[in-house]
Amino acid sequence: MPTIALLQMTSGIDPAANAQTIVEAIHFARDGGAEMVFTPEMAGLIDRDRTRGAASIVLEDDDPVLAAVCSAAARTGLWVHLGSLAVRRSDGKFANRGFVIDGTGAICARYDKLHLFDVDLPTGESWRESAAYVAGDTASVVDTPVGMLGASICYDLRFADLYRALSDAGATLLSVPAAFTRPTGAAHWHILLRARAIEAGAYVVAAAQTGVHADGRATYGHSLVIDPWGEVILDMGEPAGLAFAEIDPARVAAVRSRMPVLQHRRAIPPVTIVR
């Protein structure tokens, strides 16, 4: 069975330091027998000071974190799902973009976060991702050594239709890199991830940010791997670090045979409202 590695990070405001953490983890993952590494959302930069952070957000071709990760993938032969980076688009706006990188260091797929996190929490925290970022307009599934990977990012987790589309398109593994806040993580992280696995009969891999970051924000951690039956097979808790899990392709086939929900999906008819 193929082995994957999850990197749980406390990314800061220095892209070079974050890149070093990721590159070192890729080498440790290779030494630990992994075939693919998963990193969290915003692995290269977390900075709530948008004026300061904007200076480090560059075009994809100029991004030093992406270049370092591609180089490490090529040196180790490992695939990497770089959960996401903040990148500058050609129009000058920003995207929250994930990358699937193969063992030669080539970028196989990109995914820009579809659903942007604009919320006011009871704790007083207020987040307006759309003030700086543009939502994506495509979804993707890519063939990897550990399965057909359907990409998503963080807040996407709350929108089940995306995961239905990904599993309909052949995904057997759903990746959910994240930087969940502590209040929303404690309330909903495990529940929603297990639901997505059960609905799709697929593995869910969710590499997360954790701890208190240099910009002052705090994230929930608890990077998870969940099997197609909804069983949690890895929970990293709160410490930053690297952990490993096995992915069993036969488990996907067995669960989907036992509970053939993908075959039973139907288009939902128009809803009748009765008052």
Tally of strands: 16
User: Termini separation (Å)?
Assistant: 54 Å
Output the number of helix runs.
7
Supply the helix-strand structural class. alpha/beta
Uncertain segments are none
Strand content: 25-35%
- Please provide the ordered H/E string of secondary-structure elements: EHEHHEEEEEEEHEHEEEEEEHH
- What strand order characterises the main sheet? 5-4-3-2-1-16
Give the biggest beta sheet: 6 strands, mixed
Task: Report Rg.
Answer: 18 Å
What is the percent of helical residues?
25-40%
> What form results from the Cα inertia axes?
globular
Mean pLDDT: 95
Question: What does it look like?
Answer:
The structure is a single chain. The chain is α/β, with parallel strands linked by helices and 275 residues long. It has 7 helices and 16 strands. The chain has helices spanning 15-31, 50-54, 64-76, 160-168, 182-200, 249-258, 261-264, and strands at residues 3-8, 36-38, 79-88, 94-101, 107-112, 118-120, 126-128, 141-144, 147-151, 173-175, 203-206, 210-212, 218-220, 224-226, 232-235, 241-246. The strands form 4 sheets. Strands 5-4-3-2-1-16 form a 6-stranded mixed sheet. It has a 6-stranded mixed sheet with strand order 8-9-10-11-14-15, with helices on one face. A hairpin with a 5-residue loop joins strand 4 and strand 5 (107-112). The model has no long low-confidence stretch (mean pLDDT 95).
Task: Note the topology.
Elements: E1 3-8, H1 15-31, E2 36-38, H2 50-54, H3 64-76, E3 79-88, E4 94-101, E5 107-112, E6 118-120, E7 126-128, E8 141-144, E9 147-151, H4 160-168, E10 173-175, H5 182-200, E11 203-206, E12 210-212, E13 218-220, E14 224-226, E15 232-235, E16 241-246, H6 249-258, H7 261-264
Helix pairs in contact: 1-3
